[in-house]
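Q: Got a minute? One more chain.
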Amino acid sequence: MNNMLSIIIPMYNEEESVPELYKRIVQHVKDWGPYEIYFIDDGSTDQSVQKVKEIIEKDKQVHLIVFRKNFGKAAALQAGFRNVVGDIVITMDADLQDDPKEIPRFIAKLEEGYDMVSGWKRKRHDPLEKRLPSKLFNKVTSHLSGVHLHDFNCGFKAYRREVVESIDVYGELHRYIPVLADRKGFRIAEIEVEHHAREYGKSKYGFERYLRGLFDSMTVAFLGKFYDRPMYFFGKIGLALCMAGGGICMYLTVLWLMGYGIGGRPLLMLGVLLLILGVQMFSTGLIGDMLVDATYHKRYSEAHIKEKI
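A: Always. Here it is, folded:
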């Protein structure tokens, strides 16, 4: 028998799309074997929730999680990740731009030995003002993270269960799930997927998403390199500050020994300030390492193991 398949669909004001999306999904997964579909309502103000409830009355393999208000796509995915029971997890958007006919292709790619497969909307049917920032975002993220994908922001992805159990997404980090998975040592692949123009409604994202994405890219860049060794980051800064401050103080000490007055020189204040900041950076790195030792290694040691015999 095939493994259990779980499909997670975050939705926000997609009442026109939900019934049609459900029909298309069932059409392509009904012969797979056991499956479940989770709709995660992110504070919709239309009839999206009611539409899903009508589907549930007819199909008990469909489930619904309703948020009290709009918390964002990352929170919706996290809720789905923590509630599904499938061995294979598919995530897709509710706006009918992702085509369910691609689901078997995702599964086939996973069966080649990959842990996560990300979709690539090569021919994207979106306005230019969305495509251009997306291309820039993908190039920057690929460069900063070292994960070479064409489309990080595509919501159409497939995972093995151990991947979704090992990552936490919040804020805008749903765009960086491949980076988070790569940091855990999972194998990642990418396939081209067919992308459709939006049939109903309008995009729920505005310009502010790019500003949030900029800040989150900094977070991911830091997490990718220094998450389990913060002293490497803070220690380098502290060393540079201490060397600069120590050099200034040594220079002023030589002047003082030569009989020059240094008590009123601003350079003395700068040298002492740099030394203090350097020590603070070392202290921050040390505290960070202590926290990592107390939490990270105990919590994630099992997540690093691929196989036990």
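A: The chain has a mean pLDDT of 84.
Q: Perfect, thanks.
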